[in-house]
Amino acid sequence: MSSRVQTNLQKVLAAGHFAVTAEVGPPQGPNPEPVRAKAAILKGLADAYNVTDNQTAVVRMSSIAAAKILLDEGLEPVMQMTCRDRNRIAMQSDLLGASALGLKNVLALSGDHQKASGAGKLNGHPGAKNVYDVDSIQLLGIIKGLRDEARQQGGDAITEPAPFFIGAAWTPLGPPVEFRVPRLAKKIAAGADFVQTQAVFDLKAFAAQVKKAHEAGLTEKVAILAGIIVPRSAGMLTYMNKNVPGIEVPEALIARMKGAKDAKAEGMKVTVELIQAVRELPGVKGVHLQAIEAEELLAEVIPAAGLTPRPLV
Amino acid sequence: MIVAEWKPLPELLAGLKGYKNLLLVGCATCVAECAAGGEREVNTLAPTLHMALKNQGQDINIITRTLERACEPEFVEELAEIAPQVDAIMSLSCGIGMQLIAERFLDKPLLPGVNTTSLAIREAPGLWTARCRACGDCVLGETFGLCPVARCAKSLMNGPCGGTRKNGRCEVDENTDCIWYLIVERAKARGELESLNQVRQPKTWSNSAHGGPKRIVREDLRS
Which of A42, A302, B10, B133 could form an SS bridge with B150, CB 3.0 to 4.6 Å? Predict the structure, then answer.
């Protein structure tokens, strides 16, 4: 990890604290207030907050703008950047702009395909042309080049290094499972300082993959934050298990949620248990929490898991 | 082969409004192989257009021809005699052939009868799947003969994204294989999984469409 970058998230990890990140989805509109409202709910609960980049390929306020609004509210953002909508020229330009605005955590993703945008209730833009000039691993390398060499991908110098703390996503249980640890190694080699994983429900399978990464020495080189989605119902778990690639939900967990009298309370309990369980795994340095448009749940579950107050570093 | 697909009939009919004499041209090469624009398709489409237009009160005379190869000037020349008799030409050839026809008969409106969509193979009867995107920087030697540019929805170069389904299919289409899943399978079978661990740097796209309209010059063949 680069010592030049000093984001709060990096400092928390460097100090050996169990880190907490949470996710903030920007609104489908030009008004900053919904971002500020989420900020008010989430402030003080996490060390940094991911701002998604047109997730599910649906047009939303740009991650760069929403991240800046969070920053102004006193929350440290992790600006997500996908490879779907921008070529290497636009990406690097936006990265320099993000850095100028004080956005220092950036997370590189492939991005949801534009065909996904018409899959739900929205029209989306399934007829859009995607870019994929570079992939997420190549983007990591580009960000690292801006930071460590003060150089653009094409070789030209930039005026000074752009100090980023570089993040990536990891889907440990996605097929082909035997390539997921090597792919994590590629992300580290390309530049990742931290990774946030796809949501964990199958602890045994997740632990097995983390163990492999740990044994390969990868957990010394990268901070793994285990992804946790707060389950709200058995139906939600069944849906994710069936439809979201890389998410494995054990039948027993679905049955437990189904049998619960108060699904919301049970979901919170499950979340706390998951957090405590991943915390025990060697190599897991934190959690990345998502409540998907129900941020108020995080305000309950993060303290319930004993993760507040967040360390001041 | 170059694969083309029929345009919707309403679009074809709308384009034919006002014409009295049409030359409908097919091509006996790729578009015949993919059953979109060969002689058989020309012979099916001509009466279909005729009937549909008649129902709309438009009487059109359709002359049909199928060229051996619509992408070679000498074959396109075969239309020289018939072209003066029509007021428009509809082509079922690929976009290459269409442009050659348009260029040869500058005074005739050229109507595309098909959409050219892909460089594909016939995988099974009635099923064609893309294999190449003419990217200009072939990586098949490193990906075990499976193209991630044409066959990954995101043209990823360093392995599968998080969207591989449990059954090894792509998140974008449940009937399409995740090509990286297959690349990993082949690498494993070859005992060379580690060869995929190397980070592949950003590709150079400029030897293809992204370098501006392609112009290939072979000095040794220029007289």
Answer: B133
The predicted model gives A195-212 an average pLDDT of 98
Domain annotation covers residue A68: yes
8 Å CB contact of A115 and B164:
no
DSSP category for residue B25? E
Number of domains observed in the structure of chain A:
1
CB atoms within 10 A of CB B9: 12
CA distance B99 to A304: 68
* Structural domain spans, chain B: 2-118, 135-200
Residue A310 covered by a domain: no
- In angstroms, rounded to a whole number, what is the distance separating the alpha carbons of residues B38 and B41? 5
Q: What is the pLDDT of residues A106-146, one digit of tens each?
A: 999 999 999 988 777 899 999 999 999 999 999 999 999 99
Question: Which contiguous run of DSSP H or E holds residue A213?
Answer: helix A203-215
Domain assignment of residue A191, given as a range: 8-304
A35 CA: distance to closest CA in chain B (Å): 27
Contact B158 A141 (CB under 8 A): no
Query: Do residue A182 and residue B156 have CB atoms under 8 angstroms apart?
Result: no
Instruction: Answer yes or no: do A189 and B199 touch at CB < 8 A.
Output: yes
**In one letter, which amino acid is A146?**
L
- Residue A3 included in any domain: no
Give the relative orientation of helices A63-72 and A88-100 as an angle to the nearest 10 degrees.
10
- Give me the sign of the Cα torsion angle B10, B14, B20, B22: negative
Q: Tell me how far the alpha carbon of residue A63 is from its chain's centroid.
A: 13
Here the ipTM equals 0.95
| Three-point CA angle A13, A17, A22, nearest 5° | 75
Q: For residues A266, A271, A277 and A280, what is the CA-based torsion angle, rounded to 10 degrees?
A: -150
**Amino acid making up residue A34:** P
The pLDDT, as a whole number, for residue A5 is 56
Q: Does domain B2-118 have CATH number 1.10.10.60?
A: no
A220 lies in some domain: yes
Handedness of CA A281, A203, A248, A9 (dihedral sign): negative
- Residue in the block written with tokens 């632990």: A207
Q: What is the pLDDT of residues B82-139, one digit of tens each?
A: 999 999 999 999 999 999 999 999 999 999 999 999 999 999 999 999 999 999 999 9
Distance between the two ends of chain B, CA-based, in angstroms? 30
Q: Is A259 exposed, middle or buried (0-12, 13-18, 19+ CB in 10 A)?
A: exposed
Q: How far is CA A126 from CA A84, A116, B148, B174, B178, in A?
A: 12, 7, 21, 16, 19
CA distance readout (Å), A113 to A16, A130, A233, B77, B200: 36, 8, 27, 44, 21
Give the per-residue pLDDT at B204: 97
